[in-house]
Amino acid sequence: MAGEVHTNNPAIKDIVRLESVSKVYQQGQLEVRAVDNVSLEIDTGDFCALCGPSGSGKTTVLNMIGGLDVPSSGQVWLENHNLARLSRSELASIRRDRIGFVFQAYNLIPVMTAYENAEFVLRLQGVPESECHEQVMMILDEVGLKGMEHRRPDEMSGGQQQRVAIARAIVTRPAIVLADEPTANVDSATADALLDLMQKLNQEDGVSFLFSTHDQRVMDRARRLIRLRDGRIESDEARR
User: Fold this and answer.
1) Residue 64: helix, strand or coil by DSSP?
2) In 44-72, where do the E strands start and end?
3) At what angle do helices 188-205 and 158-170 cross, to 10 degrees?
4) Which candidate among 42, 53, 79, 233 keeps its CA 20 to 30 Å from the CA of 213?
């Protein structure tokens, strides 16, 4: 992979590094600083939550880490790659191969089955069909959807759809899963079950998670809480 390589530490353990990152939007004559000079590191194995009120900058930070948005200033590193130095195709490859996304609105392809949605990124990677089948069936079983592989999203509950989204996010074994308000559209029992699943994937399979959330249930499970307010880090607390 081309692009600038991080040279500050040849043995970096952090998956994500933000260095003095800001994001400014222009709304007419008004300048809105959604993220204001944020620096942080997310390490391998983290189960970490960005929390704070609406408008605090959580989703903007997540989108910049995922390469879905570009900082106005500062640098975002994923593993040893400076995202700003990557070409469009290189950035697309990073998002496809190294980042798993779980969105609040699920973002499943409605005409595809659970199996096809989970398989989609593997097919983009060119993984052979037989290998795809083995990996997808294993992941669907792991997220509790065995026997539902032929159902389309409109034939599944919200919690089941979110499980498909989690399966799609982790089937490629990415460096990190970015989850934007993953419990927002499900009931309490389903939210607890989804959090149990993600906690298990983190503890047993070593999947790193970074959440954007204002859900207290997510905050209670996180081993690290980064609180944002008005685009700045208010506190960064390691727990348990």
Assistant:
1) helix
2) 47-51
3) 20
4) 79
Encode pLDDT of 165-222 as tens digits: 999 999 988 989 999 988 888 888 888 888 998 898 899 888 899 999 989 999 999 9
- In angstroms, the CA 179 to CA 216 distance is 15
d(CA 55, CA 44): 28
What are the C-alpha distances in Å from 29 to residues 22, 24, 86, 218?
Answer: 19, 13, 32, 37
pLDDT in tens, 5-20: 333 333 447 899 999 9
pTM above 0.85, yes or no: yes
Q: What HEC string does 127-182 produce?
A: CCHHHHHHHHHHHHHHCCCCCCCCCCHHHCCHHHHHHHHHHHHHCCCCCEEEEECC
- Please state, in angstroms and as integers, the Cα–Cα distance from residue 76 to each residue in 34, 35, 125, 230, 231, following that order: 16, 13, 24, 20, 16
